[in-house]
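in:
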């Protein structure tokens, strides 16, 4: 996950979007400290037609947690969001 211009977390083990080119905003964001869940129910398929609803209750989901990062040179101490997984890749 890239946060604050830095890559501190390992890459997700699989493509979090699949056939979609991008998500169109986040439709839900839930925090139960130190855990969080982010979901998006609109995606762009990369065909130039813009954003589309996934339909029903379908969503791309990313659960994660926050980890404390101590101060480093040129960087203040902070809580870093870390993605733990992603929903299965979307197929159009």
């Amino acid at each position: 996950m890239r946060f604050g211009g830095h890559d501190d977390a390992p890459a997700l083990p699989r493509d979090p979007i699949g056939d979609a080119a991008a998500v169109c905003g986040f439709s839900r964001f839930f925090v139960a400290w130190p855990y969080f869940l982010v979901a998006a129910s609109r995606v762009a398929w990369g065909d130039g037609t813009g954003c589309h609803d996934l339909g029903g209750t379908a969503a791309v989901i990313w659960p994660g947690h926050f980890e404390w990062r101590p101060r480093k040179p040129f960087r203040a101490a902070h809580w870093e969001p870390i993605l733990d997984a992603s929903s299965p890749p979307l197929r159009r």
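note: Strands lie at 2-3, 6-7, 22-23, 28-32, 35-40, 42-44, 51-53, 60-69, 78-83.
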